[in-house]
Structures are given as structure tokens and as C-alpha cells.
Amino acid sequence: MDKPVTAMSNIVKIYIFSSENLELSGYLYSDYFEASCEFKTAWEMVDILERLYNRLSFPQAGFEFRSFEDKGSKNARTEVGLVSNTRHDQNEAAAEQSSNATFVVRVQFRQNATWQGTVDWLDGKKTKHFRSTLELLKLMDEAVSMDDPEHRTKW
User: Fold this and answer.
1) Is residue 88 part of a domain?
2) Which of 70, 74, 92, 101 has the fewest CB atoms within 10 Å, counting from its CB?
3) What is the domain extent for residue 38?
4) Per residue in 61-82, pLDDT tens?
5) What gap in Å lies between CA 151 and CA 139, rounded to an integer?
């Protein structure tokens, strides 16, 4: 990695294109890696972000998973799962317009085997703090389904 890791390195922009029962799909973009990645499920998004934070060692995890996997040196983008995507990288404005919701996620801590931080819902011009990864996913899901009266939230 050429860039130094700073407090801004872990900020990720997330474009949600569809959401149904916490099954979010869309793109996430990391300024640090200058790359984007498509995800089809919430689990896939969380896995990519967890690998990004592990690669950066920021925020540091409260504990580490044990593995028999070889931790040899790999290309940082490939290891994290971020790849250049011309559709997204070249036309971020078009991706933002076609998404149902756009978020900026700042994970400040990784304690108690989960994340804590803030999420900015850019379309709703609101910010919320989250205390767990599940709470983050629920906030994002509720923001996307704001048109549905059944899923109204206190955003």
C-alpha cells in the first residue's frame, strides 16, 4: 500500500440498488483503494468491509479469527475484494442517481465482535450512530424502504 492509513481510510460510500428483508445489494466504494466492489447480499457487503478493515488494521479488531489459511502477501485490492469497475468508477454520479439510497459508513471501533460508528444517509440528509453491524444493516434497510409504511423508521 502506497498511502498511509489515516482515520479517513476506513470511510466507505455504499450505493444500495435493492433491499428486501435485509438482503441489500449494490456497490461500495473505498477512496483509500480507489476502487469499488459489487455485492449481492448484506453478508457479502459485511465480509468485504471486514476484510478491508483487517487489511488496513484500522479500526483494530477486538479479537482475531484463527485460520489455517496462508497469510502470504497478495495484492491489497484483490485480497480485500475491491476491483476497478469502469461502470462505477467512471460514472459515480450515474450510480448515485440510479441507487435507491446512498450511505457513507464510518466504522470507528470493532469491539465485542461487531462494529460501532456512524452512517450518513445522503438522500435523507441524516446521520445515525450504530452500535452493531446488525443495527447498521437495519438502518440501511429501513432507509431504503422508507416509501413502505410498514417499514417506517425514526430516521
Assistant:
1) yes
2) 70
3) 11-151
4) 877 666 677 665 555 555 566 6
5) 11
